[in-house]
């Protein structure tokens, strides 16, 4: 027994060394790749605090010589970023509120609720997933122009008031809730809204947080429709940022430090949310992968 | 009297239950009504409208319009629009292929590389995933700066390697690649995360059994990991394919469809006809054609998904 162990030990030694080298190599390659992937984010942050002279140097500096945090103030002062922020918040809030309400009610109706034609109507809701705004924006734009909704918040929000994805995901979760909870609440004399908002919503909190976060980021980052319906007023952050590049077009390189500051400001809310709700964000992605 | 009541009762109960059922189902229906009405106005009505507009000569400059039959369709398939359509289809297909290759191929390679359960690696993974949270508009202006011909850091790095300056966005041969670098940067960490979470769910005893049978690590990867990941691959393929066909924002900010239409993907083509030329008729006909392609792709992928490729019982 002991001799066998000794023999094993020798051949194992070589194998262990080989494994160690492989592991070190894996670390080195992984770290190099991570640095490359992280570099654009680093470059955005670093460029945003450089001075105009420093950003134009023919040999770029990897670390700023002086810190110019006033670039951030300039973006607000020169480019109206404060207004873009408020506009984006109003638009996203409108989208969120309506999508959450139609989403929760719709998910309830299509899961716990019972009515004739339920399955067909649910298929119609799902079918909307196959009709993107990139196809339907022409008639909507013409319709909104007729209604006087171009360049209004209502125009920004209205086409995004229902999310079939929200209804679909939440319906699945509502279906997994044990029916006895709902029956018990009904026996206690609870109405529909009571069942929805006092039983189902608290029980499915984590799913609701996850899909609401997805809804929030899609709304906050939306670009195509805002660019069409509200190119000038009320301009949201995404469109404003792209416009910043256009206004400085002739002298694009001159103002890149301020554009970078704007880019940082635009992503900051989402990044902060990501850190607060990290757990939910990642489960959200894996949940999407499971279906 | 008693007999009467007994006689009546079942009927009454039936009536009442039917009545309460009707009320209850009406209330349930009311819950889904807002969603249905809004979808009808802002999704289903417009899709009918866009088809109708494709048979008119509607442009926003004239106020009136008339029906012109298949004239716009002729323009698209056998007229001056054909070469632009073919160009857009080619570019969209190239772009889609690129994004799929990066998300799936790159994602899988990254998943294998970052597949270590240590603290260091979990930090590295989080960093690689980070670009996903940088909104496309911000990411696009950052890459606009990085890819800048005269002051961009990429050309500086290439310069230190002794290579000349590349006009990344102004050059027909590199513009689409630049767009793909941007999208790929945001997509690869996402692909990695999806693959990693799927890899974690593969039972360990499969590998142990294979190792006992003398299968080397490459064989184990090829015969166990790849097949077990097939549902995930299919999911990524379908979602990436459909979303990549709708690409617009990165193209709009980075290249504006140019140079010489070399990045004019199909959505950009629709956008240009509608919002720059105000040719609603031509924009609509391209939009309807695009919608048909989307439907075909969705139907095909659903068919493939049904015959799912999972070997797990």
UniProtKB/TrEMBL annotation, chain A:
<keyword id="KW-1133">Transmembrane helix</keyword>
<dbReference type="Pfam" id="PF00528">
    <property type="entry name" value="BPD_transp_1"/>
</dbReference>
<feature type="transmembrane region" description="Helical">
    <location>
        <begin position="148"/>
        <end position="168"/>
    </location>
</feature>
<feature type="transmembrane region" description="Helical">
    <location>
        <begin position="259"/>
        <end position="277"/>
    </location>
</feature>
<feature type="transmembrane region" description="Helical">
    <location>
        <begin position="195"/>
        <end position="216"/>
    </location>
</feature>
<dbReference type="GO" id="GO:0005886">
    <property type="term" value="C:plasma membrane"/>
</dbReference>
<dbReference type="InterPro" id="IPR035906">
    <property type="entry name" value="MetI-like_sf"/>
</dbReference>
<dbReference type="InterPro" id="IPR000515">
    <property type="entry name" value="MetI-like"/>
</dbReference>
<keyword id="KW-1003">Cell membrane</keyword>
<keyword id="KW-0813">Transport</keyword>
<feature type="domain" description="ABC transmembrane type-1">
    <location>
        <begin position="85"/>
        <end position="277"/>
    </location>
</feature>
<feature type="transmembrane region" description="Helical">
    <location>
        <begin position="120"/>
        <end position="142"/>
    </location>
</feature>
<feature type="transmembrane region" description="Helical">
    <location>
        <begin position="24"/>
        <end position="46"/>
    </location>
</feature>
<feature type="transmembrane region" description="Helical">
    <location>
        <begin position="84"/>
        <end position="108"/>
    </location>
</feature>
<keyword id="KW-0812">Transmembrane</keyword>
<protein>
    <submittedName>
        <fullName>Carbohydrate ABC transporter membrane protein 2, CUT1 family</fullName>
    </submittedName>
</protein>
<dbReference type="GO" id="GO:0055085">
    <property type="term" value="P:transmembrane transport"/>
</dbReference>
<keyword id="KW-0472">Membrane</keyword>
<comment type="similarity">
    <text>Belongs to the binding-protein-dependent transport system permease family.</text>
</comment>
TrEMBL record, chain B:
<feature type="transmembrane region" description="Helical">
    <location>
        <begin position="283"/>
        <end position="302"/>
    </location>
</feature>
<keyword id="KW-0472">Membrane</keyword>
<keyword id="KW-1133">Transmembrane helix</keyword>
<dbReference type="InterPro" id="IPR035906">
    <property type="entry name" value="MetI-like_sf"/>
</dbReference>
<dbReference type="InterPro" id="IPR051393">
    <property type="entry name" value="ABC_transporter_permease"/>
</dbReference>
<keyword id="KW-0813">Transport</keyword>
<keyword id="KW-1003">Cell membrane</keyword>
<dbReference type="GO" id="GO:0005886">
    <property type="term" value="C:plasma membrane"/>
</dbReference>
<comment type="similarity">
    <text>Belongs to the binding-protein-dependent transport system permease family.</text>
</comment>
<dbReference type="Pfam" id="PF00528">
    <property type="entry name" value="BPD_transp_1"/>
</dbReference>
<dbReference type="InterPro" id="IPR000515">
    <property type="entry name" value="MetI-like"/>
</dbReference>
<feature type="transmembrane region" description="Helical">
    <location>
        <begin position="93"/>
        <end position="114"/>
    </location>
</feature>
<keyword id="KW-0812">Transmembrane</keyword>
<feature type="domain" description="ABC transmembrane type-1">
    <location>
        <begin position="89"/>
        <end position="301"/>
    </location>
</feature>
<feature type="transmembrane region" description="Helical">
    <location>
        <begin position="126"/>
        <end position="147"/>
    </location>
</feature>
<protein>
    <submittedName>
        <fullName>Carbohydrate ABC transporter membrane protein 1, CUT1 family</fullName>
    </submittedName>
</protein>
<feature type="transmembrane region" description="Helical">
    <location>
        <begin position="21"/>
        <end position="45"/>
    </location>
</feature>
<dbReference type="GO" id="GO:0055085">
    <property type="term" value="P:transmembrane transport"/>
</dbReference>
<feature type="transmembrane region" description="Helical">
    <location>
        <begin position="175"/>
        <end position="200"/>
    </location>
</feature>
């Amino acid at each position: 027994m002991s001799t066998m162990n000794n023999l094993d030990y020798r051949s194992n030694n070589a194998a262990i060394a080989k494994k160690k080298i492989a592991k070190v190599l894996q670390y080195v390659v992984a770290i190099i790749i991570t640095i490359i992937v992280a570099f654009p984010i680093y470059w955005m942050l670093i460029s945003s605090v450089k001075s105009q002279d420093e950003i134009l140097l023919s040999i770029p500096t990897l670390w700023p010589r002086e810190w110019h945090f006033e670039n951030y103030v300039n973006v607000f002062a020169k480019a109206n970023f404060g207004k873009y922020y408020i506009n984006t918040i109003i638009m996203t809030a409108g989208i969120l509120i309506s999508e959450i309400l139609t989403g929760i009610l719709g998910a309830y109706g299509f899961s716990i609720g019972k009515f004739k034609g339920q399955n067909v109507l649910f298929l119609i809701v799902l079918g909307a997933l196959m009709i993107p705004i990139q196809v339907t924006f022409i008639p909507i734009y013409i319709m909104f122009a007729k209604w006087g909704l171009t360049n209004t918040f209502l125009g920004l929000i209205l086409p995004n008031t229902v999310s079939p994805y929200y209804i679909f995901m939440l319906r699945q979760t509502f279906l997994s809730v044990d029916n006895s909870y709902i029956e018990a609440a009904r026996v206690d004399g609870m109405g529909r809204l009571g069942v929805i908002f006092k039983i189902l919503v608290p029980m499915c909190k984590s799913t609701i947080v996850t899909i609401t976060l997805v809804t929030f980021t899609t709304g906050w980052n939306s670009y195509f429709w805002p660019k069409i319906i509200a190119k000038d007023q009320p301009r949201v952050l995404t469109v404003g940022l792209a416009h910043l590049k256009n206004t400085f077009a002739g002298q694009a390189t001159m103002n890149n430090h301020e554009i970078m500051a704007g880019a940082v400001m635009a992503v900051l809310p989402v990044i902060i949310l990501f850190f607060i709700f990290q757990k939910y964000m990642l489960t959200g992605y894996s949940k999407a992968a499971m279906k | 009297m008693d007999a009467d009541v007994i006689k009546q009762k079942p009927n009454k109960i039936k009536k009442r239950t039917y009545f309460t059922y009707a009320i209850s189902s009406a209330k349930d229906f009311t819950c889904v009504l807002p969603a249905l009405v809004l979808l009808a106005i802002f999704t289903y009505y417009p899709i009918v409208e866009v088809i109708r507009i494709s048979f008119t000569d509607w442009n926003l400059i004239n106020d009136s319009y008339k029906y012109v039959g298949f004239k716009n369709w002729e323009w698209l398939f056998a007229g001056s629009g054909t070469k632009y359509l073919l160009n857009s289809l080619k570019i969209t297909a190239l772009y889609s292929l690129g994004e799929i290759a990066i998300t799936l191929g790159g994602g899988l390679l990254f998943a294998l590389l970052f597949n270590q359960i240590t603290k260091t690696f979990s930090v590295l993974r989080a960093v690689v995933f980070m670009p996903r949270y940088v909104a496309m508009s911000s990411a696009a202006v950052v890459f606009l700066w990085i890819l800048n011909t005269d002051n961009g850091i990429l050309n500086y790095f290439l310069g230190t390697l002794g290579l000349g300056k590349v006009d990344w966005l102004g050059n027909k041969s590199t513009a689409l690649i630049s767009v793909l670098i941007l999208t790929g940067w945001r997509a690869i960490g996402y692909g990695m995360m999806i693959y990693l979470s799927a890899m974690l769910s593969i039972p360990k005893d499969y590998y142990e059994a294979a190792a006992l049978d003398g299968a080397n690590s490459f064989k184990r990867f090829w015969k166990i990991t790849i097949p077990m990941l097939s549902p995930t691959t299919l999911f990524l393929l379908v979602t990436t394919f459909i979303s990549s066909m709708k690409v617009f924002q990165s193209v709009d900010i980075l290249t504006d469809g140019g140079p010489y239409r070399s990045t004019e993907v199909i959505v950009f083509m629709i956008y240009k006809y509608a919002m720059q030329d105000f040719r609603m008729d031509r924009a609509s006909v391209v939009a309807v054609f695009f919608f048909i392609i989307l439907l075909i792709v969705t139907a095909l992928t659903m068919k493939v998904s049904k015959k799912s490729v999972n070997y797990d019982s």
